[in-house]
Amino acid sequence: MPFVISTFSASPDPSHWGIVGWSAGGTCAVMTTVMHPELFQTFVDMDGQVGPNAGSAPQTIARLFGGDAAAFALFDPTTVVRKHGPYSGVAGWFAVSDTGPVIHEPAKVGPAPNVDPPDNPESHTAVATYLCGMVSAAGIECSVVPHGGDHTFPSAAQVFAAALPWLAGRVHTPGVPAIGLPGATPQ
How far is CA 87 from CA 29, 116, 132, 157, in A? Predict the structure, then answer.
């Protein structure tokens, strides 16, 4: 960020920064935003996972975190959101390669619910619905947006094109109007 700010005169204001990722990158977009809302206030998660994943929870902890469950918890969005407490000014778009209705969750005030992740972590809709419900309870407005495609680069490109007007307006791109998340009631 310091390089981008100094080289391109970008704003250091976190409301001007967002993160977009597909698949594991989508997981990282959510993870980084909830870990660092003082740096990023907007994310687009395209077909991400519930959290770091290299197999089962014990396998992930062993493979990615050297067996250290506490280190894993530092990067688990559910744990991070529950420990952080209420967020302010953060919003996210969860895109899923599935069909179904758009689900919008306004930002709420209160602790994240103590609900277990979905039984089927391979279901992008189940994962996104779980994460959106969890983060919205902690103050993050979000929508789950099915796009009917599949988990491929061409579909990810289409999702990015669909999310870009919201993202660009949200991060205050000059000349781009702010628009609400899909499913949100117009203000």
Answer: 16, 21, 13, 29
